[in-house]
Amino acid sequence: MARLIRHDRQRPYLIREEEVDRFPIAVCACGLSATKPFCDGSHKLTVGENEDTIYVYDGDQRVPLRNRY
């Protein structure tokens, strides 16, 4: 079953060094990362999104969905 999941955050969650023994960790919050749960920088594609629009991403292409409700 396909699902549409809404992600509102346009940057990763950062876990700082003092919280983890290893190194700072960036956890994906935009839903676009190919290396989930870790951030790969894909959130940069979300720059310029309108707050009231839902988008579908296909590779590097952003397609706005028409609101029919």
From TrEMBL:
**Cellular compartments per GO CC:** cytoplasm
What superkingdom does the record give? Bacteria
Q: Which InterPro entries match?
A: FeS-contain_CDGSH-typ, MitoNEET_CISD
Question: Which residues does the UniProt record annotate as the domain Iron-binding zinc finger CDGSH type?
Answer: 10-49
Question: What GO molecular function annotations does the UniProt record carry, in alphabetical order?
Answer: 2 iron, 2 sulfur cluster binding; metal ion binding
Source species of the chain: Candidatus Hydrogenisulfobacillus filiaventi
As recorded in UniProt, coiled-coil segments are: none
Listed name of the protein:
ZnF_CDGSH domain-containing protein
Q: Does the keyword Iron apply?
A: yes
* Keywords linked to the UniProt accession: 2Fe-2S, Iron, Iron-sulfur, Metal-binding
